[in-house]
Design a protein that fits this description.
The protein is α/β, with parallel strands linked by helices. The protein has helices at about 20-30, 80-85, 90-95, 110-115, 130-140, 165-180, 180-190, 215-225, 235-240, 245-255, 260-275, 280-290, 295-305, 310-315, and strands at about 10-15, 40-45, 50, 55-60, 70-75, 105, 125, 145, 150-155, 155-160. The chain has 2 domains: about 10-190, Rossmann fold (3-Layer(aba) Sandwich); about 215-328, Orthogonal Bundle (Arc Repressor Mutant, subunit A).
Amino acid sequence: MYSEVARPHRVVVLALDGVYPFELGIPNRVFGTADGRYEVVTCSLDGRPVRSSSDFDIALAHDASALETADTVVIPPCEVVTILKDGLPQAVSDALAVIRPGARLVSICTGAIVVAAAGLLDDRPATTHWNFAERFGRAYPKVRVDPNVLYVDDGDILTSAGATAGVDLCLHLIRNDHGSEVANMVARRCVVPPWREGGQAQFIEQPVPPPAAAGTAAARQWALENLHQPVTMADLADRARMSGRTFARRFRDEVGMSPGRWLIQQRVFRARELLETTDLSVDRIAGEVGFATGASLRQHLHEAIGVSPLAYRRTFRTGSAVVGAASH
């Protein structure tokens, strides 16, 4: 159980008119499963019930003044057609203006449109539901929209794609705040995968391949079981019984990124787990996950999350004290 001495991180969810009930409940369900590490409250602009996108209203116990106390603010999707057409209502702009400096701002699905309409995403990367991405880009040309990813972490502002990508983003935040062990525990309790491969590309409507067409899933599974080997794209293509060009195209269609980028992502993710749960040296971990050297692991980990292996281990190490820190 989490220490009762530490103040829980306060997450405030802002429900706007036309809010989507499923996504509204994601922060409470995910953060609320982390054994008291987070306190989640939900508010409307004036503390009164809000109309949902379904056939019921939602009663809330807080008004927008709760945003002043937030460490993280979450904006779930709502009906955004009016915002795209007429801009952000002044009451919403006023509410967002009270968020304190240093607080994280998180959007789920089309909640990104609310953030963009407030001018907070200008010259920043972001994503939203793929079905709104083109309209989003036209309405807010200063935003660097990436329609292919499940979420974008730009430090103090994070955006996610549709529906369950909000779960992915919340787990990502827990992983960054408390490490993979806690995030994996929360994922198990919520009965969701702790880490999903790829991006939105795999969910975008596209022609269905013939039933006999081979996919890349078996090759990906083989790669995950052999990360300690110097797996190449040629190896993966051979496993899938495809030419390299066909495999690369099919892989990107299914996963939303190149095989090389996916392999690095999986190796870094496995390295993070080993840093948290073992006393292995950086060089040993590099070999276990398929990086040629400890220097290569250091480089890729820094590119992925901006810290060194030693700094990451000191932050998230569980159990006994770190052994052999000088090897880092």
